[in-house]
Amino acid sequence: MSLNFIGFLVVTALVLMAMVPVVVHQWRKDRRALALLAEAHELGTHEVVSLHPRVDEGLCIGCGECVRGCPEQDVLVTLRNKAHVAHAVECVGHGICERVCPVGAITLVIGTETRGAEIPRLTEHFETNVPGLYVVGELGGMGLIRNAIWQATQAVQHLAAQPRERGRDTLDVLVVGAGPAGLAAALVAQQAGLRFRVIEQGTLGGSILHYPRKKLVMTHPIVLSGVGEIPFREVEKEPLLAFWLGVLERRGIEVEEGVRLEKVERADGEFRAHTTAGLIPSRRIVLALGRRGTPRRLEVPGEELSKVAYRLIEPELYDGQRVVVVGGGSSALEAAMALAKRPRTTVTLCHRRAEFGGARAPLIQRLLLLEREGMVEILRDARVTAILPDRVDFDVAGQPASRPNDYVFILVGGVAPYALLKACGVDLETKFGTPILRG
Ligand SMILES: Cc1cc2nc3c(=O)[nH]c(=O)nc-3n(C[C@H](O)[C@H](O)[C@H](O)COP(=O)(O)OP(=O)(O)OC[C@H]3O[C@@H](n4cnc5c(N)ncnc54)[C@H](O)[C@@H]3O)c2cc1C
User: Fold this and answer.
1) 286 CA distance to ligand 1 centroid (A)?
2) Atom of ligand 1 nearest to the CA of 199
3) Pocket-testing residue among 92, 240, 241, 421, ligand 1, by greatest number of atoms within 8 A of Cβ
4) How far is the centre of ligand 1, averaged over its atoms, from the C-alpha of 180 (Å)?
5) Ligand 1: which residue has its CA nearest to atom 6?
6) Is ligand 1 within 6 A of the CB of residue 144?
């Protein structure tokens, strides 16, 4: 064997040794990306009508900046040097992917080519076609706390500039919803000297309360009218809520919690808002309802009992209690697992199917592990037939069953707020993959 040939073999071996880790790394990355895309397609989370990124594959160079920039998990993934949308449902509209893409291959859109998203037709002041009725925040199609605050500020400043003849008991403005948009609307209304009320079907905070993760990201500074800049760029949800509560307390603004808007009528030039706390007359209304809608009910006997709730906020309040969680999606699974980890809490999860098709694989695996460890009981093919003060009755695959019970959490999704908008006479337009400009 000549020295040249030996030299050739050595160099080839060195090159191969150097390349192996790179190839293995790339192979592992592609395998993970393929699994993620398959999972998203299986769950149907790759295609949403709400705000999400669209990748132009012709332009994409697969640099991965969008994947690295996105603060959410697994919205985007790179596979074979192209970015792909995986769990589009996780997108909340930060728009960082669009901004950091060096070749302009990403656009934030609403709706898809085949599935339209309905959003209200609004003026530049966020007024609908019904004069005096405004829609602000995520209900208008655009996500993010800063957009919600900015839109609410614009809307209330606009309505405050209108002439103010008023009846005896008539408000200048009724704010519906106490998420970031509704809270900002209330602050601006107070600053403008308007007579206003704020109603909220649940508890104040809006979508923020539902974040499964703790950390929130605000990519731009946010200014609150009369308060100044919100002092966070990255914050956990508890301090953010504490901040809102502090501001409301200092400004003496009261949010009427547990009051739902059900219908709006117009008569004699003013609105009559039908709410669960009675009729509220108001000259103007700001709808800051978000997109989550009203929690879906089971419509079973006993659902009106005070031990029934439609969301879980503080699992630690249920230590040592016997709890039933109803649902098979991510929120139900997360709630069941959070409760199962509390000391002496007994958890029964009631799911109407045999499989968990509506949640992501890691979540399902963690739940099944807890089931094997005896920390969660899962009733499959099951539905609740009645809720009684001390127990819950079920139909489990055609057989009656019952469990002693202290609390019930019904987490089976929500009824979108668009029916309410239509009933108010608001014109909606359907967007099919239309690019959205962020404020
Ligand atoms: C998982 C997740 C993570 C997110 N992360 C971020 C982030 O890091 N940074 C960021 O800027 N944004 C984030 N967002 C988006 C942000 O939370 C929303 O865009 C924002 O909360 C929208 O505010 P909103 O006031 O329009 O609606 P919401 O916050 O949804 O509030 C609407 C309120 O209206 C109430 N309501 C609804 N219907 C009625 C009715 N009929 N009567 C009375 N009250 C009613 C609801 O109960 C709710 O409290 C995230 C969203 C989610 C889901």
Assistant:
1) 15
2) 43
3) 92
4) 7
5) 216
6) yes
- For 37, residues 6+ apart whose C-beta sits below 8 A from its C-beta are 46, 77, 79, 84, 86
Give 69-103 pLDDT, tens digit per residue: 998 889 999 998 899 999 998 888 888 999 999 99
What string of DSSP letters covers 107-174?
EEEES-SSS-EEEE---TTSB-SSTTEEE-GGGGT--SHHHHHHHHHHHHHHHHTS-----SS-EEEE
User: What are the two backbone dihedrals, phi and then psi, of residue 427, each rounded to the nearest 5 degrees?
Assistant: -75, 130
- Say which residues have a Cβ less than 8 Å from residue 132's Cβ, sequence separation at least 6: 159, 271, 283, 284, 285
Question: What average pLDDT does the chain have?
Answer: 90
Q: Is the pTM of this model over 0.70?
A: yes
The model's pLDDT over 220-264, given as tens digits with 9 standing for 90+, comes to 788 888 888 888 888 888 888 889 999 999 999 999 999 999 999
Amino acid symbol at 72: E
Index of the ligand 1 atom closest to the CA of residue 216: 8
Domains 21-109 and 118-293+417-434 share a fold: no
pLDDT for 214: 62
What distance in Å separates the CA atoms of residue 103 and residue 182, rounded to the nearest whole number?
37
User: Domain spans of the chain?
Assistant: 21-109, 118-293+417-434, 308-414
Cβ-based neighbour number of residue 236 at 10 Å: 14
CATH architecture label of 21-109: 2-Layer Sandwich (3.30)
**CB contact set of 206 (below 8 Å; sequence gap of 6+):** 177, 178, 179, 180, 181, 182, 183, 290
Separation of CA 184 and ligand 1 centre (Å): 13
- Among 13-22, 178-187, 194-203, name the one with the lowest average pLDDT: 13-22
pLDDT tier at 9, thresholds 50, 70, 90? confident
pLDDT at 1: 65
Q: Select 118-293+417-434's CATH number: 3.90.550.10, 3.40.50.720, 3.40.50.300, 3.50.50.60.
A: 3.50.50.60
Rounded to the nearest whole angstrom, what is the distance from the C-alpha of residue 183 to the centroid of ligand 1? 11
Q: Does domain 308-414 have CATH number 3.40.30.10?
A: no
Cβ–Cβ under 8 Å, residues 188 and 160: yes
Q: Residue 272's pLDDT is what?
A: 95
Token duo for residue 180:
């970031």
CA 250–ligand 1 middle distance (angstroms): 23
In short, whether 177's Cβ falls inside 6 Å of ligand 1 is yes
Cα(32)–Cα(366) distance, rounded to whole angstroms? 19
